[in-house]
Structure formats: C-alpha cells, structure tokens
Specification:
Layout (H helix, E strand, L loop, with lengths): L1 E5 L7 H10 L4 E8 L7 H14 E6 L16 H14 L7 E5 L2 E7 L29 H4 L10 H10 L9 E5 L18 H7 L14 H9 L4 E4 L6 E5 L2 E5 L5 H6 L10 E5 L2
Parallel strand pairs: 1-2, 2-3, 5-6, 6-7, 7-9
Antiparallel strand pairs: 1-10, 4-5, 8-9
Length: 282
C-alpha cells in the first residue's frame, strides 16, 4: 500500500477538474488517499467528486474544509447541518470520516481525521500574528458571509469539532499515527523558517496585502489534541502553501492543488507533479 496526501482541490475550476481526471486515470486500488478538505461549496458537486475519487482508491480519508461548509440558506439553516449531511453521505459511501488502520511498509498505521475550525483574532488559541498594513475589517474573507453556525449561546466551532473527533477515536496500538485536519495546528507551519514575514515573497505573491490570513488559519487546540493522542505526522491544508516541516518532534505536511493561478505563478509548482507520497511498501 501507498499513502498519498492532497488538499484544496477546488473542483469549481475547470483546470482542477481536468488535473484530477488525468490523475484518476491511474490505478490506486491498493492505496489510501488523505484528502484534507476544500473540494467545493456545491453539495452535489462535492459528492460527485468524492465518489469519483473513492472509486479509484482503495481507501479515502476526508475532512471538510471551510469552503465545503459554505451555505446559501436554501438547503441548510446553518453550516453545522451541512457538515452532518456530508458526514452522512461519506458514511453511506465508504469514505472514511472515522479513524482507520492501514498497513504500509510493514507497519500498522492509524489515519485519524481531525475535524476542526479556526479561532479568530482575539479568541483563545488563535494563530493570529500582526501583519503590516492589514485591514482589521477582513471584508474580503468569504467565511464571514457564507459560514453560519447555530445561534445557541456558547457554540464554539473549534471546540465542537474536536470533541466530535474525540468521540470517534480508536483504542488500539499502532506503529505510526497520521492525523489530518483542514486547518493549521500552530503558527510555525505558516512559515518556511522563522516566524517572520518574508517581505520579498509577499511583494511577489501576496495578491491581497491587506488581508491577514493568520486570523483565520487554525487553532492551537488542534496541536494540543493531536499531540495528546501521540501523532507522528500531521497533514493539513487551507493555506495553499506546500510544506514539509518538523516541529518539536512532529512532522507537519501540507500538499495543495490550490487555484490554477497559484500553480501558474509558482506558489504551488510542486503540485503539478501530483500527490505527495507519505508511505509506500518497499
């Protein structure tokens, strides 16, 4: 078996659909794919592509991203209802949204979906870091318009999803644990090296200089959770920057398809070569 990683496939873009169609011509029936969210906000299209991917892989493990939970108010009252509709579809179609164990390279490997959300600026466990010239209104962040949570007092999405994850954990010994979430688990993984803004890179690639991604990046809750269950490798998505980085004994991996313009500009040049391989039988 081989274990592959991919996230943020955004099938609303024709170029991305063509990329995936080409990928799915190959045979992965003995392999597992970790799909770390952001397929599309269109429910029927999301289901269609989950089925296409599932048909070609031996196992598919998936968590929704923020785009997947956008709603227009017609089919669901809130994004939590849509989340549970996605979970129901996955459970009915053998798409793994619960932890599972696979065998790779002579090891028993637990693959653990971690459902999550971000904590925003000013909230406990936010990954926010000040950015020069940022617009604090964040008017360009679509989640502020397209994500709606239940109105009950005390609902905190980042806490709800981790508790949902906790209730589904396995209790069996394994040789290697791979966890994965859509959102980032700690500030360090936002950066290639030290936690400082690379102004030259920003000048070249930052299309929205006034937008501060860190306020919507993830949550420290995720990192505390995955370390509490003994993760060895954590896969994430959301940032549209590929990463493979060791931090305090855990390997953090991100591998996005992203948007076509990001691949053309070189931000995601590695993605053109395909999925990222995490494990393979020798």
């Amino acid at each position: 078996m081989r274990i592959f990683v991919l996230s943020d496939i955004h099938v609303d873009f024709e170029e991305n659909r063509l990329w995936l169609q080409n990928l799915l011509r190959k045979n992965f029936e003995n392999d597992a794919l970790i799909l770390a969210g952001d397929i599309t906000h269109h429910f029927d299209l999301l289901n269609e592509w989950l089925l296409k991917i599932r048909y070609r892989f031996g196992k598919v493990f998936y968590v929704p991203g923020n785009h997947d939970l956008w709603i227009d108010g017609k089919d669901w009252d809130n994004s939590l209802q849509k989340f549970h509709a996605i979970m129901e579809f996955c459970n009915q179609n053998d798409i793994n949204v619960k932890p599972g164990v696979v065998h790779c390279n002579g090891k028993q490997v637990a693959i653990v979906p971690v459902f999550s959300w971000y904590d925003m600026r000013g909230e406990n466990d936010s990954l926010y870091l000040p950015k020069p010239g940022e617009d604090p209104s964040n008017v360009m962040w679509n989640d502020l318009y397209d994500i709606h949570w239940p109105k009950e007092n005390g609902f905190v999405a980042s806490s709800y999803f981790l508790e949902y994850t906790r209730q589904k954990l396995l209790n069996q010994p394994v040789d290697l644990t791979i966890t994965f979430s859509h959102f980032l688990p700690r500030r360090e993984v936002m950066f290639k090296g030290e936690m400082v803004y690379d102004y030259e890179r920003m000048k070249k690639y930052d299309r929205f200089p006034q937008f501060n991604f860190s306020g919507f990046a993830g949550s420290l809750k995720i990192d505390r959770f995955i370390r509490s269950i003994g993760t060895n490798i954590h896969v994430y998505g959301h940032q549209h920057i590929n990463r493979d980085k060791m931090v305090d004994g855990v390997r953090y991996v991100a591998h996005h398809l992203g948007y076509p313009h990001e691949r053309r500009s070189g931000i995601l040049s590695e993605s053109e070569r395909g999925m990222k391989l995490l494990c393979a039988d020798l």
